[in-house]
Design goal:
By secondary structure, this protein is an alpha/beta fold. It has helices at about 10-25, 40-50, 80-85, 110-120, 160-165, 185, 200-210, and strands spanning about 1-5, 30-35, 60-65, 65-70, 100, 125-130, 150-155, 175-180, 190-195, 230-235. The chain is globular, with a radius of gyration of 16 Å. The structure holds 2-amino-2-deoxy-6-O-phosphono-alpha-D-glucopyranose (GLP).
Length: about 240
């Protein structure tokens, strides 16, 4: 695991954007695994700018997102599908037919998980971008999730509901369930880039990097990946 500690969120965002651009410049038809959450927002803003200035293009890129809340319509302003459109794709030349994300309001969620697994098997990711939950989760793979699990429906941990409630009017509006890509498919990506910013991630960063590889901290699985890079800011690195 390659660890890069930067001063602050501004530096983290610029460096993460460079990393993703490098993948797109080397392979203009790359397949990316992308993430939601506040952490990648700065990097996404750089990617939109670099796309507008012609440095990169999403025209031939395929994207597979990590997760989606259950029961939300893809057009809901709280859905992760909406998040990706507003925060990244609207400012790029991405063909939305090449954007894939589990459907949170599918009638048959088991069938939806299987559909997503088939897509993931057929479309290996060149780069997987990840954020980090304050409890060490990656995507919505909460602590104790077996590393070999594939796409599944998850009951969110109370701490995750609390963390994500800032994006809703109140706690009661936060969906309690989500569909998430499993750890097995996350680590199948050729390269992984995980971003962590802020003091509330410091314990999870410590467990991920210095703890033993264990389902207690799902992100610790990245220690075993042959090409995983972690970019963390000073606050997130404060316990290392
Ligand atoms: C959610 C997402 C994760 C994300 C995490 C951290 O739980 N499912 O993919 O990494 O939040 O979010 P943030 O970047 O807002 O701290």
């Amino acid at each position: 695991m390659k660890i890069i500690i930067v001063k602050n969120y501004i530096e983290l965002s610029a460096l993460a954007a460079d990393f993703i651009c490098d993948t797109l410049i080397r392979n203009s038809s790359a397949t990316l695994g992308l993430a939601t959450g506040s952490t990648p927002l700065g990097a996404y803003s750089h990617l939109r700018d670099r796309c507008s200035s012609g440095q990169i293009s999403f025209k031939n890129v395929k994207v597979f997102n990590l997760d989606e809340y259950v029961e939300l319509h893809p057009n809901s302003v709280h859905s992760y599908a909406h998040f990706m459109k507003v925060n990244l794709f609207d400012g790029t030349d991405m063909d939305l037919r090449d954007f894939h994300i589990p459907c949170g309001n599918a009638d048959d969620l088991d069938a939806e998980c299987k559909r997503y697994d088939r897509l993931l098997s057929a479309n290996p990711r060149n780069l997987q971008l990840l954020g980090l939950g304050s409890n060490g989760h990656i995507a919505f793979n909460e602590p104790l999730t077996p590393f070999e699990r594939r796409t599944h429906v998850v009951e969110l941990a109370a701490s995750t509901v609390a963390d994500n409630s800032r994006l809703f009017e109140n706690d009661s509006q936060v969906p309690r369930r989500a569909i998430t890509m499993g750890i097995r498919d996350i680590v199948a990506a050729e390269r992984i880039l995980l971003l962590a910013s802020g003091i509330n991630k410091a314990q999870a960063v410590l467990n991920m990097i210095k703890g033993e590889v264990s389902v207690d901290c799902p992100a610790s699985v990245l220690q075993r990946h042959p090409d995983a890079t972690v970019i963390i800011d000073g606050d997130a690195a404060s316990l290392l």
